[in-house]
Amino acid sequence: MRTALAIILLLITPSMAFAHTGHGDAMGFMHGFEHPVGGLDHVLAMLAVGIFAYVLGGRALWLVPLSFVGMMLVGFALGLGQVNLPFVELGIALSSVAIGAAAALGRPMPVAGAMALVGVFAVFHGHAHGAEMPATSSGLGYAAGFILATALLHIVGIGGAMATARFAGRHAKAAARFAGGLFALAGVGVLAGWL
Predict the structure, then answer these.
(1) How far apart are the first and last CA of the chain?
(2) Which of 4, 14, 55, 194 has the fewest CB atoms found within 10 Å of its own CB?
(3) What is the domain extent for residue 80?
(4) How far is 171 from 155, CA to CA, in rounded Å?
């Protein structure tokens, strides 16, 4: 309960702190923060990264989300620089399918391999953030906004997997893998236009 309350407070804090947008980096921050949470394809992928990190456990719990954020910044720079990257929307749509499926399989994977997997898809997400940044936004504020929103969604994914695992008891890993499968199916639904 405390974790859920803390997450809710973190999610609403930026909107309280920047209630008067249009001043300095505030407008950019809010645009950046809203971008990852504004599309189901982005949200599914960010939550799937958290679930995948939980399923792998150990160092992957923080290295996998961190690699996603780092490579998302690389993609952001490419999008901001108007570097053409083919199949961006397809890469974004496939991200929850691939990452959710990897979590569902639950097979041992080297941490570096897991980081590479999420990193590839993170470039597509970052590119979209950079290419779609409003001209009136501050790049630094915008980047800080989408980084915070992404990190919070990763944390919600990890927290949700942990809560599910706690409820499932000895079937904890199976429950988390099942959740990964649901995210993969939801990604297929986005690709097919059902969601």
Answers:
(1) 30
(2) 194
(3) 2-192
(4) 22
**pLDDT, mean of residues 86-101:** 93
Question: Which pLDDT value is given to residue 155?
Answer: 95
Q: Residue 131 is which amino acid? A: A
Which among 142, 116, 117 has a CA at the least distance from the CA of 32?
A: 142
* 119, 68 contact by CB (below 8 A): yes
Q: Which amino acid does the sequence have at 8? A: I
Single-letter residue type at 168 = A
From residue 140, alpha-carbon distances to 25, 27, 73, 108, 116 in Å are 7, 11, 11, 37, 25
Neighbour-count burial for 68-103, b at 16+ CB within 10 Å, e otherwise: bbebbbebbbbbbeeeebeebeebbbbbbbbbbbbb
Q: What pLDDT score was predicted for residue 139? A: 84
What's the pTM? 0.83
d(CA 121, CA 91): 6
At which residue do the structure tokens 């952001």 appear? Answer: 76
Compute the distance between CA of residue 64 and CA of residue 61 in angstroms, rounded to an integer: 6
Give the residue carrying structure tokens 């970052």: 126
